[in-house]
Amino acid sequence: MSFTLHGLGVSSGIAIGRAMLMSHATLEVSHLTIAPRMVDKEIARFEAAMKAVKGELELMKETTEHAPAELAAFIDIHTMFLEDPELVDKPREIIRERRCNAEWALVQQMEHLVGQFEQFDDPYLRERKFDVVQVVERVIKELLGHPGRAVMKTAKGVKEEQLIVVAHDLSPADVIAFKDHRFSSFITDVGGSTSHTAILARSMAIPSIVGLETARSLIRDGEQIIVDGTRGVVIVNPDPRVLEEYQLRKNQIELERSKLKRLKTARSQTIDAVDVQLFANIELPGDVPIALEAGAEGVGLFRTEFLFLDRGDMPDEREQYEAYKKVVKGMAGRPVTIRTFDLGNDKDLRPGNNTNDRVHTNPALGRRAIRLSLAEPRMFQIQLRAILRASKYGPIKLLIPMLAHAHEIDQTLAALEQAKSSLRGEKVAFDENIQVGGMIEIPAAALAVGLFLRRLDFLSIGTNDLIQYTLAIDRSDEQVANLYDPLHPAVLMLLAHTLSMAEKVNIPVSVCGEVAGDPQFTRLLLGMGLRIFSMHPSQILEVKNRVLKADVSELAPTVRRMLRLDEPGKLREALDKLNA
Q1: Which pLDDT band, with edges at 50, 70 and 90, does 340 fall under?
Q2: Is 100 noted as a catalytic residue in this protein?
Q3: Measured between alpha carbons, how far is 467 from 476 in angstroms, rounded to an integer?
Q4: 190-225 burial by CB neighbour count: b if 16+ within 10 A, else e?
Q5: What are phi and psi of 287, to 5 degrees?
Q6: Is 488 known to be catalytic?
Q7: Which is the catalytic residue, given 100, 168, 488, 512?
Q8: Pick the catalytic residue: 78, 196, 488, 536?
C-alpha cells in the first residue's frame, strides 16, 4: 500500500531507493527497588557505565579525521554531558535516596534535563535535548549489557547507493559510521535544521528529511521509498506512474546540478553587466572548504555563537582567536564578516545551572545578542580582542546583531576602541580600520535605518528574524509556521526601505537570511536593488545561475510596480510572473 509522510526538508533533491531501518534502544526501563546494602554497588555500576561510554566517545573522536568537521564538535557535546554534574551526580543522589536501579535513576534525570532544554527559545539549543537523550541511551545500553552503535538492517541484494537510512534519530556515533558510505538519503522521526542528520546530509549533498514523527514505525525494511528533500515529502511504495514521474525529475535535477558546477568560476554578473557578490554563511571553521568549493566570494556571515554552543562553556580568547584566524587564512584574502555572539538570555548553557532555571516570558524579546554582549563587558572584550587579533591575517568585518537603538552602536564602538587600546598597549598587530556593520532584523531598525547608516560602514539584513518580528510569529512554532511569509507586504516594504535608504548614502547592504539563498526570490531582490547575497554554500551556484540570466534594467521597474501591491495572492502571482 502506498502512503505519504510529511516532514522538514533539510537537504534538497530527490532520492529513490530501498529502506534500511536502524534499530534504536528504548528508554522505557523498569523501576526496581534495591536493598540498602546494594546501593553502593549500584552506584559503582552506574559509574562504570558512564566511564565506558566516555571511553567510547574518546575513541570515536580519533576516527573523525575524514568526517564532516561539525561531528567532532557534537561528540564534544556528548562528552560534556557525561562530565556534567547534572548527569553525573544527580543520578547517584536518586539511587541513594530512592534505593532504585541506575537505569531508572538516569532516565528520571534525563527527563528533567529534556524539560529544561525545551524551554530554550533558540531552535539550536532546543534540539540539544536530543543529545541528552542519545547520551543517556548509550549509557543505558552499557548498563543493560548491549553497548555499541545502532544496528542497521540492510535489504539483501541492494547496492549501498540505493539505500535510504530510516531512523528515529541519528547520533554522532551513527553518522561517523556513515562517513565512508554512499547512502542516497537519510530520513528521521525527530530533529531539525541543525540536527546531526541535517548537517551530515548537507555535507554529503544528499536529500534528507527530518521531523517525520512516525517514519521509523510505519516503514518496513526493504520497502521502496521516494524522498523529496525539497518539498519535505516521503512516498512509501509509490505506484508506477508516480515512480516514473519522480525518476524523470531526479534525472533532471542531477543534470541541472552537473551544469551548475560549470558556473563555479564564472563572474557573478547580470546580463546588463551589474556585478553581484555571492557570499557564504558559515557556522564553524570547518565550513570554509565547503564555501570555497561552492565558489563563494567570501564569508558574509560567520555565526560565532556556534563556537559557544558546541562547547557548552565560553571559549577563551586564544581559542576564539585560533578559530577566527583559521577562517580568515582559509578564505585566502577574501573578506570575512564575523558576527558577534547572537546568544539568548542564558549565558551559561550547561544544563542544570541555576541561571537556566529562570523562566523568561519571551527570551526572543529579552536580553540577547548585542544586548547580552553589552551587559557582559568581560565576555564582549574577549571576543572583540580575538576578532581584532585575527584581522591581521586578512580582511575582517565586524557585524553587530539585533540592533534597535543608536546607543547600542555607540557603546559597541566604545567597547571596540577599548579592545583596540588594550592590544596597542601589548603591541599586538591588528587592522586599525576594521569595518563595523549592523544587522537589520528588528522592524524598528529598518524604519529608523538612518540612525544606523550615519554610524556604520555596512548593513546586513537578517530576513529570518525580520520576518519573525514583523509578523509576530515564532518561526520554530509548528502551530503558526504557516503564517511565516517572506512575501508579506510589510516585510517587502521594510526590505525596500532599507535598501533604498542605504543606496542614497552609498552604504553597502547584504541579505543573509534564508530568503537570500532561495532562488525564487533572487530576481525580486535584484530588482529591489540588492547586490550582495549571503547564503548556505550549497545554494550559491543555483542563485548565481539566476543572477547570470537576470537583467536588472528590466527587473527594477517591474519590481517597483510589484511593491505597490498589498494583496498576498496578487504578490504571489507577480512573483511567479517575475520568475517565468
Answers
A1: very high
A2: no
A3: 13
A4: bbbbbbbbbbbbbbbebbbbbbbeebbeebeebebb
A5: -80, -15
A6: no
A7: 512
A8: 196
